[in-house]
Structure formats: C-alpha cells, structure tokens
Amino acid sequence: MFTRRLAMMLLLTVGLCASTASLTAQQTQNKNDVRVMSYNIRYGTAKDGENHWDKRKEFLIETVKAFNPDLLGTQETLGFQRDYLAEKLGDYEVLGVGRDDGREAGEMTALYFKRSRFEKLDGGHFWLSETPDQPGSKSWDTSLTRMASWVKLRDRQQPKAKPLVFFNTHFDHRGQQARLESARLLRRRVAELSKQCRVILTGDFNTDEGSEPYKALFGEQDGQPSPLRDTYRQANPKRLPEEGTFSNFKVGQVTGPRIDWIGVSKEWRILSAAIDRTAREGHTPSDHFSVTTVLRP
After folding, report:
1. Domain membership flag for residue 210
2. What is the pLDDT of residues 12-32, one digit of tens each?
C-alpha cells in the first residue's frame, strides 16, 4: 500500500513539474520574437564525394526546419540550390541573383523570409567593389566577385513598428584589403538605413573576430559607435577556442575561426545566439555550421 501511494505521489509530482515547465516555456515565448539563421550551404557543383550536394541536401533542409527561422541568409548558393530550398521551404519567399551577372550566373547571397510574417517593401543587391551598383564588378585584391543582397520588410505582427532591413553577404576568402573595404562599404549602407529601419545582417565573412574587417563592422570608427552588434559575442561574452564555424565536413570540428556572423542594430534584444553543430552518421549538412540567433523587438 505504501509503495502504491508513493508511486502515485511521484506521478503527480512529475505531472505538476511538467505542466509548470510547459507553462514557463509558454510564458517566455513571444510571438514577436524573430528567429534568424545564417548558412553557407557549400556550392552544389563541388566535387565533394560522399558530401556532394545531392547526398546532403535533404539533411540540410531538415536542419533548417529544425531551427525554423523567420529569416534565413545563405551563401555559396547556386541557382538550382536557391530553387530547391524555395521549393522545400514552401513558407518562404526568396531573393537571390548570381554574382557574376546579377541574374543567374554564379553564386548567390540568397535570403529567405516567411511570407506569413513579413511583407516585402523593397529589395535589391549591390557588389562589394568600388562600383557597387555594377553587377559583376570587382575591386581591390578580391579573388572572386562578391556581393550583398537585401530586403526591406514590414512585420505583419508589428505593422506600426519601424521596417526591418535584412542584409546577407559573403566576403572574399583571399583578399585582405577586399574584406576590409567590403566591411566599410557594408557599414556605410547599414548606417544609412539604420536611421529609419531596424537592421539584421547575416554572412560568411571569411575572417575572424578581432580582425580589421570585424572592427570595421562592429568597432568604433572616428569616435562613432557601430550601428551593428555581434549577436554571438553579445550572448556569449567569454571568447572560447571552441567557436569555429568552418567544419570542412568534419564531425566534431569545433576549433578554428568564427567566420560566420549575425549582426543586428541596437533596437533588438538578443535572447540567444548559437553555432549549430548538427551531424548525423558521420556527416554534416554543409562544410560550415549554421549560426543562429533569436531576437526580440
């Protein structure tokens, strides 16, 4: 009899704890929170053997859906990859053009946003060069054509709030001067828009925290604070060696530079920021880990 009563008490206690935990989770969630993901998906024509796009694309979609971003910025995205993601992520609208001609040729800095959440007000692209409005343009010591895409959005859940401008970019992997000048150009564009809009920036920047391009984006310049904050460092103040975001398809790879960033303007409250190291059966969805953040207006 005592054993039966004890068991019943334990069950009641577990049920009460579960209900309390569920209630707490509901209380902490906010429908206005914005979930953001940045993902270098590795260009789909690379000769990656067991890690070829066709063998990992479903896994990548599952990884994106597991986080369920409201905004998704992808890098190294070829046209057929852009379209595959758009098909499989049916709730999203996509904006992306090829860097080589501003149409379909070359990699894209494609961005996706939930159409049920956001209304597109404007959008476009610019090139990381001295002639940013010229498609396919290159400058400085860049080894490849580089660009940024952006979209201006109205949040349907906060129609009276300031519009949101979402940028997505990919800096050059070799040109040091190109990365620095790209950061300066991007900061100028962000600064112009941040006067009237809230800003979110995703990208693969091919350089580590503390580098000159990083300082150009997030540091003080000419006595003026940056219009952007690094979400990961704000949410995780202590810098650790296990913050690498390039995996080279190696499961468990955690060291190395943190080259994938999400930046936001001052209006946002940063609830969390993380590096998603999803892996399965010895494989990762891409040669980069995605990075994520949850923001509150």
Report:
1. yes
2. 343 434 333 333 333 467 999
**112, containing H or E segment:** strand 111-114
Say if CB 157 and CB 129 are below 8 A apart: no
Closest CA to 74 of 95, 53, 100: 95
Q: pTM for the full model?
A: 0.90
143, 175 contact by CB (below 8 A) = yes
Rounded-to-integer distance, Cα 259 and Cα 261, Å: 6
Per DSSP, what are the bridge partners of residue 92? 114
* Token couple for 10: 């334990």
Residue 242 three-state SS = coil
| 15: exposed, middle or buried (Cβ count in 10 Å: 0-12, 13-18, 19+) | exposed
Q: What token pair was written down for 6?
A: 């004890």
Is residue 251 in some structural domain? yes
In the chain, the number of structural domains is 1
Strands laid side by side in the 269-276 sheet: 92-95, 111-114, 71-75, 34-40, 290-296, 269-276
